[in-house]
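In response to the reviewer comment on reproducibility (Comment 2.3), we provide here a single inverse folding case reported in full, input and output, so that an independent group could reproduce the run without further information from us. The structure tokens appear first.
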């Protein structure tokens, strides 16, 4: 018969092994937690910092290339060709592909966008794939960001740029100049897109001219595959009451919604109200 209070060596070893297992498990959980926090910090802070700095440098480089610097003039010398085109409904959407893109997502490496690289149907050379060739400015959002050809994540959007949809028109041309940008991470240029209101201005600068669009419609949410929002006469195929009914000179800004998801798209539409040559 075992005396009270006496613990066998086997029991001690089992208890020691149990404590070691608990300690090891706790260490693993702490390590995993730290790694996850670092990943979140990288996505939400470092990618934003890196992309914003890169985008700012690209804007400065374009300004030097164009032989000027500073903020854009938004002069009204020269009105849009046909008054921007009226329509029915109250908004636009972004549909499709990857984060921040509408209807379809272009892969890197092939093709060029339609229209001229300098806008206004001037017949100039089309921008190369992933080339930054314009600057988008939105005063209400304190935003000034490069516009590049295509909506590839790796080559355009993840650099903090705004991407131009292949197949849509260039700035100042009749039709739809359609753009996509990240809502969260990688510079998140379109994070505050929902703050835009009717009457806000959007300026697009190219080497040849400065184009000013005026916001007049917003589609808060639609399917990620709603390609109608980037057509020449933009109108949602999912929510047909949102959009336009006749040709004009349009701009479409698309991004993901709600924040930190890519399930749906939203878009802001505007019409061209002025343009001036450089």
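Designed residues, in position order:
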């Amino acid at each position: 018969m075992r005396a009270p209070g006496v613990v066998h060596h086997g029991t001690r070893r089992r208890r020691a092994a149990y404590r070691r297992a608990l300690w090891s498990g706790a260490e693993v959980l702490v390590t995993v937690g730290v790694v996850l926090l670092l990943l979140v910090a990288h996505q939400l802070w470092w990618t934003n910092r890196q992309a914003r700095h890169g985008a700012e440098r690209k804007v400065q480089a374009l300004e030097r290339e164009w032989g000027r610097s500073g903020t854009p003039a938004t002069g009204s010398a020269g009105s849009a060709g046909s008054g921007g085109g009226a329509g029915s409904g109250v908004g636009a959407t972004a549909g499709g592909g990857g984060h921040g893109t509408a209807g379809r997502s272009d892969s890197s490496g092939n093709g060029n966008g339609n229209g001229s690289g300098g806008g206004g149907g001037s017949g100039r050379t089309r921008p190369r794939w992933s080339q930054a060739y314009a600057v988008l400015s939105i005063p209400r959002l304190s935003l000034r960001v490069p516009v590049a050809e295509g909506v590839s994540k790796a080559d355009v959007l993840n650099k903090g740029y705004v991407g131009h949809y292949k197949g849509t028109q260039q700035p100042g041309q009749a039709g739809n100049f359609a753009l996509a940008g990240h809502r969260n991470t990688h510079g998140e240029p379109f994070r505050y897109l929902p703050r835009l209101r009717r009457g806000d201005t959007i300026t697009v600068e190219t080497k040849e001219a400065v184009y000013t669009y005026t916001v007049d419609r917003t589609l808060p949410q639609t399917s990620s595959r709603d390609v109608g929002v980037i057509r020449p006469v933009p109108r949602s195929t999912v929510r047909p009451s949102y959009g336009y009914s006749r040709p004009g000179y349009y701009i479409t800004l698309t991004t993901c919604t709600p924040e930190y998801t890519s399930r749906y798209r939203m878009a802001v539409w505007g019409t061209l109200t002025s343009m001036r040559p450089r």
